[in-house]
Specification:
Length: 459
Amino acid sequence: MAGKLWGGRFRKKTDELMEDFSSSLPFDWRLYRADIKAGIAHARILREGGYLTAGERDRIIRALQEIEKEIAAGKLDLNSGYEDIHSLILAMLSEKTGVLGEKLHAGRSRNDLVVLDTRIYLKEEINGLIELIRGLQSALVEKGIEYRDLIMPGYTHLQHAQSVLVPHHLLAYVEMLARDRSRLEDARKRMDILPAGSAAMGGSNLKLDQKLLAKLLEFKGLASNSLDAVGDRDFIVETISALALIGMHISRLAGELVLWSTFEFNFVEFDEAYSTGSSFLPQKKNPDPAELVRGKAGRLYGNLLSVLVALKGLPLAYNRDLQEDKEPLFDSLDTVRDSLAIMAGVIGTIKFNAGPLQASAEKGFSSAPDLAEYLVDKGVPFHQAHRRVGELVAWAIKNGKSPEDITLDDLRKFSPAFDGPALKLMTPLASIKAKKTIGSTAPALVRHQLNRWRKKLGG
Ligand code: ARG
């Protein structure tokens, strides 16, 4: 294939190891569609500026379209010695169109092109991610609807705290994912700025209709500073940071599922399609997808950190260090994409075990806060109410009494403000029904949230 894009100044061949070391082609080939889209739009504005005839523009566009088809069909030699996908596509273009191909790169540098391509690519990727987030949210909401009346213990410090509805717990993740979605949308908004025209770093002398280019490539605005435009990787940091947060959220969900699927908890059962066995222990059914999702949060954090560190202290504008943004970015995108899809499958097929959940919710005096607030309603100062109920729990534990053994007389020994209805509060169902605040696990509110989310997600 044709030579390098910068051969003129050089007399010697590049060292072979250096060539491999510097090539981003093995990973940035994924930008090929974006690069071709950018090339086609650039050909149009070169024509508008008078640098191409209409016929030349059309030949370039046709050749680029052919190249896109060829690459999609697998005609891509990752070891062809090209420095990156941008050089390779220009070389393929020259091969097809001769000297005409050499005209396309006018007014551009790979420094602004790589930012442009990555933004085009990422804006689309984010659309796909948002769809996957929606898929997992839908799976959580549908599972919540399936188990809408099921009560479970809610925890703080992994100790029983207050009873909650299973859908209330699941909806907590729906909320986290909604913030994840809005973070991605936010990042997408800020990356919607066209860097083209910045060329290597200081701009181009050619007449390039950047507004038209922005319109053709569906960008909202133009970069106001060429140095910033080619040196900026905030949009990558923002995206992989949002991806790291998604990884963190779903690793928490995954971690809970691993715990809940143990013999000790026995709250859930994984579907066999999302479980694996052991090569030695015939009885095993392991929750591997959840463990993997939990583990993958680590690499997502690592990717974020490696880009942040690569950027630290870099002088303006483009530096080759910036090429180090791509592998972490692509890895984070792949990892989160797969993890979201897997978690949607896990949640969609998982079964909750009503017996153990109900039995566990009845243990641990989770209605103690309800008793304390009952006293507050009767006019007892909160701290005093808290103390009295604490004493009641200590007494019950000491005397081997469960909540259902406690009588009104027992309650009244700790506070004369207790009366008949207090006793009825001491079940998980009564506890959740007594909740009044917005955002609480009160059944009517949870049902409302399930309906609201179902409508919003359109599933
Ligand atoms: N492959 C490079 C990157 O990903 C873009 C090329 C810029 N190279 C250069 N020598 N100016 O950042």
